Amino acid sequence: MGIFEPYRAIGYITSGVPFSVQRLGTETFVTVSVGKSFQIYNCAKLNLVLVGPQLPHKIRALASFRDLTFVAYANHIAVVKRAHQIATWSRHTAKVNFLLLFGDHILSVDVDGNVFIWAFKGIEPNLAPAGHIMLGYSFTPTCIMHPDTYLNKVLLGSQDGSLQLWNISTKKMLYEFKGWNSSVTCCVSSPALDVVAVGCADGAIHVHNIRYDEEVVTFFHSTRGAVIALSFSTDGQPLLASGVSSGVISIWNLEKRRLQSVIRDAHDSSIISLHFFANEPVLMSASADNSIKMWIFDTSNGDPRLLRFRSGHSAPPLCIRFYANGRHILSAGQDRAFRVFSVLQDQQSRELSQHHVSKRAKKLKKKEEELKLKPVISFDCAEIRERDWCNVVTCHMDTAQAYVWRLQNFVLGEHILRPCPESPTPVKACAISACGNFAILGTAGGWIERFNLQSGISRGSYVDFCESRSCAHGGEVVGVACDATNTLMISAGYHGDIKVWDFKGRELKSRWEVGCSLVKIVYHRLNGILATVADDLIIRLFDVVALRLVRKFEGHTDRITDLCFSEDGKWLLSSSMDGTLRIWDVILARQIDAMWVDVSITALSLSPNMDVLATAHVDQNGVYLWANQSMFSRGSSIDSYASRQEVVNVKLPSVSSREGPQVEDSNKPEENHAQIKESYDLPVFHQQIPDLVTLSLLPKSQWQSLINLDIIKVHLMRPFPCTQ
After folding, report:
1. GO terms for biological process (predicted)?
2. Same structural domain, 265 and 414
3. How far is CA 594 from the centre of its chain?
């Protein structure tokens, strides 16, 4: 058992599986998949209401009925009532691709063409299917739907473009439609009887009458890509919405038989699902870019506008940092988005504005992604001046200027910081002073400059006259840092030179060489310790005041991706591409814990209270949270739960926080589990000092006023005022 245990994952909205919409009373709910779990949102405000259990494999299909959710994963179907799995259907021999709610039954279709019929009234743990249909060997199903008013009938589309109408009661095929020589990707029923819309891989939409096998109308997309999703409007407007793999949503007018409007930048990735709400001019769309959006048709020209949305990173985060005393996490991703995630309330998460990107993109006829700032490679923040001016500075990939942000308003600041305008080079490192007034920028050309955050004006540069050219370092600046009293500024160059400057006078005070190329530095302001990462995979700790090496940590076998000090400076956390997260005790000069995850950590941050660790991983769009067991267990020492030199295999946290510890220690699993039990069964801390009062197990309201006990007694001794 390690110090940090999986807690939960945040930032996941939806994945590449079509959602399921159902109406309960006056409210509408949508069920979406997020990897191996699912989430249910209330469509009124798109607030999260329920998170499903963690399943063994990724979800492939969803269906819902009242408080039941049917989830297909691998060859199985899980039946979940609210958040508890009550049954598992296992009869398929191939992966299940589709689920269809059909009255009191669920139809499941696998890749081999097997259709099983399941009755879910009176569910048993391992219920046998009520029926089975075997499709033809040459028929590869790609979609399934039920035509309205067709009793016991389902329509299946195939990869070769044909469609088949089956009676599931008699288990016989009634009719086969020849199709259009293009793979059928989706099929939906229209409000008009006997009419369905069929989407094909060639981008064509065929509105077809299945009773007479006649074509009603055909639409063609101007943009390339297969038609992935279709939906008919049911509020009286003759509209058909279609979504393609390029992320474009098209609205077709069925009466006029022409294209009415196009939402070009609806999503950044392929459309997964579309759904018109019953008797409402509202369209919901989901995409593989990790977002759900709702569009309302209330404009004079009939074009839809964005009503509300929920989104997360569409590409993996590059940098993360705790903010607001651990309540929020700042995250910068490869998708050019800068986001704030709330650890406590999911609906408070949002993306920081970059000044009317949507309007500018529409005016210039460009994609929003082209107008957004390039991905952030480094940033720093300071909470002390949040109410006064911008308190976040960001460095962007291949960008010769840095940008400031005002977190109080969640918006990009008005100033752009341009160091060395005579010879601009990309900004590589940044830091904000402890007072929150200044930002220090380091560039790829070795230039370091100080700016005032309130005015955005340069306040001088740091120059080492010993260098061949007028700059701070001979090579790229890999990191800058400031001490707690604005006395010293520390900088590190790529060639292994570390320099200490006078913050105010900008004069070089001292320097030393590490001996190899530096990759990253992290400075702890309270104890004055500088941690450096070199390309020899060794972590070195320097005392900036004493100018000497004080610690050296070895153990990683691949590139070290990130470092993080604990708030008290006693721990140093490091992550590497070898998949390990190692915790080093700075005082004891040894490793106290190590864990291995199958997806390497790229960024990490420890909350100020040291109770939660946040990590970002390779090819993962979310942020993963880990709970510090030393803050919540009753063990008397770290030795009771730390693995020391042993590396513990740990699974990534799931979306649901209800899952228990997910540890797989290949060496001594029984010992570790016994160790866990011991750590939780330890008695209350013994008093180390005579007459010491233990207060940690009592509510805060019972002991927070004890330090003012004398003042309270004086107030209570005052005579009460006379009353008439």
Report:
1. rRNA processing
2. no
3. 24
Residue 690, judged by CB atoms within 10 A of its CB (0-12, 13-18, 19+), counts as exposed
Q: Is residue 8 part of a domain?
A: no
Which among 604, 601, 595, 621 has a CA at the least distance from the CA of 565?
604
CA atoms within 13 A on the CB side of 143: 28
- Helix H or strand E segment including 711: helix 709-717
In a domain, 530, yes or no: yes
- Is residue 449 situated within a structural domain? yes
pTM: 0.87
Question: What pLDDT sits at residue 636?
Answer: 47
DSSP string, 514-554: -SS-EEEEEEETTTTEEEEEETTS-EEEEETTTTEEEEEE-
Total length of the chain: 724
Provide the residue range defining the domain that includes 639. 320-681
Question: Is residue 95 located within the same domain as residue 175?
Answer: no
The reply to whether 166 and 130 lie within a common domain is: no
pLDDT at 137: 82
Burial 658-677 (b: 16+ CB within 10 A, else e): ebeeebebeeeeeebeebbe
Residue 114 is classified by DSSP as: E
One-letter amino acid of 80: V
Distance separating alpha carbons of residues 276 and 58, to the nearest angstrom: 27
507 and 648 inside one domain? yes
Q: How far apart are CA 356 and CA 354, in angstroms?
A: 6
The domain tally of the chain equals 3
DSSP 95: -
Residue with tokens 């259009």: 180
Q: Where among 134, 165, 200 does a domain terminate?
A: 134
List Cβ neighbours of 640 (8 Å cut-off, separation of 6 or more): 633, 675, 678, 679, 682
Q: Is residue 405 part of a domain?
A: yes
- CB burial of 342-376 (b: ≥16 within 10 Å; e: otherwise) equals ebeebeebebbebeebeeebeeeeeebeebebebb
Domain boundary among 272, 287, 302: 287
At residue 469, the pLDDT reads 78
Would you place residue 677 in the very low, low, confident or very high pLDDT band (cuts 50, 70, 90)? very low
- Same domain membership, residue 264 and residue 334: no
